[in-house]
Design goal:
Elements (H helix, E strand, L loop, with lengths): L1 E6 L9 H17 L4 E4 L13 H10 L5 E4 L2 E2 L5 H14 L4 E6 L5 H7 L11 H13 L22 E6 L5 H7 L2 E5 L7 H11 L12 E9 L3 H6 L2 H9 L8 H7 L2 H4 L14 E3 L1 H15 L3 E5 L5 H16 L6
Parallel strand pairs: 1-2, 1-10, 2-3, 3-5, 4-5, 5-6, 6-7, 7-8, 8-9, 8-10
Helix pairs in contact: 1-2, 1-13, 2-3, 3-5, 6-7, 9-10, 12-13
Amino acid sequence: MRYSLVELAPVAPGSSKQAALAHAIEAAQEAESLGYHRIWYAEHHHSTGYAAQDPVPLIAVASQNTSRIRVGSGAVLLNHYSPYSVAERLLMLEAFAPGRIDLGLGRSTATPLIDYALLRDRTSRQVDDFADQVEEIVGYYHRAFDPGHPFARIDLTHGIEGTPEIWLLGSSGNSAGLAGRLGIGYVFGGHINPAMARSALTRYRQSFVETPFGARVSRPVLALNIVAADDEELAHRLTWPARALRAGGRDRPIPTLAQATAELDDVHKGQPSTVEGSVIPPQISGTPDSLRAQLEPIVRATGATEVMVQDMLTDFDLRSRSRELIAEALAKVDPQG
């Protein structure tokens, strides 16, 4: 089955965001060599621990330093932007890397202060019009506005062959029906809300309608936090940096394994990191064989056609080995049984 990456450009203690961004581009090249289908860059504003504040520059650089892998946003937080601006910027990236650009769309807060700083008009009342924004982007890319709509006269794609693939990302299930109705791809954040993964992806598949706006078949993707190693003990310990980040506060560089080992108490260290029945832990760990055994039932239960991997590792040799082993495991997962 297909396997992909979400890259947050984590900042290691004592390092810089410049170094993290360089590693994020190297991650795309490495992922391409390991057979990952796509790599998406996140949007985390005003973050100490992540350098991926704006995915667009990262997509641009990564697309020019790779040749096969799809590159995209995971996600552009559409509530902060004009749909026209987002559509135009990603269309330019499509011109640089035809057939390889994904526009992943989501909505999230960046804290009230940063949300306010991102506003162009700070006098207007904020509204939740996410569905309208998504439909507007679809309208620009596919000339899908009603004839009487004022934007029907805009030919945004003139002179550029092809458009980015549009995806919706969610962690509550609220966007699943919208993605299905529009006939576009849908990614559920199982690392954020694992208990909702099955119902959200089922809702997406059941609501899917074939349209000209997507691949004409449903594409349910499950995002999970996964780490791997050559032995189970080390694999479990690789979940500790993510746990230490949550336990000790998020506004800091991402802890190394050594720091996490020193910071965490035995209770946090001992929390499960393997799938038990239908219970998906926030972080999943294992060797290639055990990961395949854990993930295959989840994939079949959710109907996912692709698994998107996230990690919070700043020990880059351990991260590279982890991603290599995860690719080995997921390549052998049979989603059909």
